[in-house]
Specification:
six-stranded mixed sheet, alpha+beta, L-amino peptidase D-ALA esterase/amidase, Ubiquitin-like (UB roll), globular, homodimer, 16 strands
Chain lengths: 415, 415
Amino acid sequence: MNSMVTSNPLPRAAATLDWPRGFRAAVGAAAIKKQGRDDLALLTMPSGATAAAIFTRNLFAAAPIEVSRRHLKDSRGHASALLLNSGCANAATGPLGVANAVESIDAVARALGCASESVLVNSTGVIGVQLPMDRILPELPRLCARIERASDGDSLEPFARAIMTTDTKPKMSSRTISCSDGRTVRVSGVAKGAGMIRPDMATMISVLATDAEVDARTLDRVLRHAADASYHRISVDGDTSTNDSVFAFASCVAGACDETLLAAAFREVACDLAKMIVCDGEGFERSLAVRVSGAAIKADALKVAETVASSLLVRTAITGGDPNWGRIIAAAGRAGVTFRANDLELRVGGNLIFRDGQPVEADKNAVRAAFNGSHVEIAISLGATDGSVGEANSDTFLSCGLTTEYVRLNADYTT
Amino acid sequence: MNSMVTSNPLPRAAATLDWPRGFRAAVGAAAIKKQGRDDLALLTMPSGATAAAIFTRNLFAAAPIEVSRRHLKDSRGHASALLLNSGCANAATGPLGVANAVESIDAVARALGCASESVLVNSTGVIGVQLPMDRILPELPRLCARIERASDGDSLEPFARAIMTTDTKPKMSSRTISCSDGRTVRVSGVAKGAGMIRPDMATMISVLATDAEVDARTLDRVLRHAADASYHRISVDGDTSTNDSVFAFASCVAGACDETLLAAAFREVACDLAKMIVCDGEGFERSLAVRVSGAAIKADALKVAETVASSLLVRTAITGGDPNWGRIIAAAGRAGVTFRANDLELRVGGNLIFRDGQPVEADKNAVRAAFNGSHVEIAISLGATDGSVGEANSDTFLSCGLTTEYVRLNADYTT
């Protein structure tokens, strides 16, 4: 971690996880999927705020993604508000789905007195069902009225809760940057997502916000850098969704900030949220990090790390706490990356297990303990470097054990 | 099915599933993993028999694969015997593993009186453990003596059983070809494999045998054609193993046979065996076929079919009998193939479910029934063709629902 970035490690008291200056948030309940829970979330920012986003590359991108992509382009990276809902993805909903997304945006723009193209929108939930506009539209003016009563520095939690679907916990993180002139700048973020998680985004929605003054182009760069190190390095089940997105907003009210520091803070917040997503993966029992070093190029390291971390046989072995390292090297060997099999070294929890094409006599109790912790660390060296392990030849991928509970949840999730 | 190929559909009475003329088989018990079950299998063929094989492309190919690959090359596609064992994969076993494979081969060659390089070998079971040579070596002369007492036309079943690991059933198939001059020629096959199954072979071992007269080059071509239509179109868990292989042998004792007919028979036997592997997949409850048509090129059709068939969310929905078609189109949309989302048509069990970017009013009971059968047929048209659905734009991929039992089995499979 960069020493200039003061960490706000996830506190017990959620009250300290709040929105940066200039942001106001409100939530509402429109009974989109079920009665009595917040399923609408609105975030507003002052005029002049900048915006950037990464959207799913799925060909069946949802209606709100289509509309938000257009608005972000038309506004040249500026935004006044973001409207999210859970309970319905508004995906695979045809022209009516697009019309509903536009109608929601127009209602919010009217109530807030801003231009429609400065409002972004996204939805998460079941695919192929239309939004219940009869319940959503009456709620939107009330939601916007609540924004007027909100203040800077409100807790992230209500917003983080309102966008949850199968998540069991709200996901929030925050960092403070101390600028050289004594000012502080804040980066906060929320996320949702528990299934359908893999690189290129997933049923994941994340919102990152800063009060630093950042132009739209820089914000986009900082966001992509952060997503690369976080959301693109996790997998729960290899599936991506129609609604995946990460939004970044800068209210610009707290003055400028060194880009390197800002990027580090964005990256840390995004990595926190990505880890929380993995550890809240459906049926989660145990997390798994696969670190690959000594590859010929970084892309090879990523490919091996992702293949091992995504292997069903590795993931079930992790669930079983079973030191079945043969599955780990078999997965590495089919990753489609060329390396000398005899050069591979495998360590689990720091214990050397495999070298020179065969298992190493290891302390069986230590190995078993390494496979049975709440977090399993797999380190694979492909031997292409001379010991000076550089970032250029390394990458890490996060996943979790595959459990019977994951299967049960997803076999029972009724459309 | 080619009308010239008379099908021997899987009979109830396994006695009719036998080896073609010229082949002799024997099994033995060496207590490799556990006492009292057959775990050695030997197949011999007459001098002049030809051989071909497809081996795993995993970088950690097992010791016996390494040795067999060399022998097949040295013998220029000829073979006298194949020795298989279950209970131990002899993979990731270093130089000692190779020495053990060679020592087993030498013992068989000595007992049979043939050249060592005409003997092929493979193993299946746990990775990273050495073969118990003290128990295997004494058993090999007995195994070879048993071959002397075997006869042409013996049942495939003892051999098919001896190579089983987590399989619950022996896998056998046979076809008879009627040649134009009244002669008949036979193609028979056995296979094992239940987990670690996906394209490029898996923990799968298959042996295909014919009594037709076929030169080594033709046999290799016929084998690759058959594997392409079968073993390379199935997936149980996306993992491949260190020991995957398909062997083909021709005893050449029944005279020549038209290559097209022979290829059709090999393909049918291989497809039978591939389907049996999927339907004996660990924790199997329900099979799944994904047929994609109307792609720009065949490779695109395969990519979409494999992505949908391998999606954990689709596979858990299949297990739940849940008509969650949104997961199917979401998987198609992330396959990395470019098509117009609005052109996609989705049918399940013949019921049109999705068209023009949105769901179609379908008979809910019929759809639910289609998702709840013992076999689920998913048909996706990408719309690139004009209705004349050609093989050039289509492909099919087989898989099965992902079950809690699969996870339980693989979490508990102790090294």
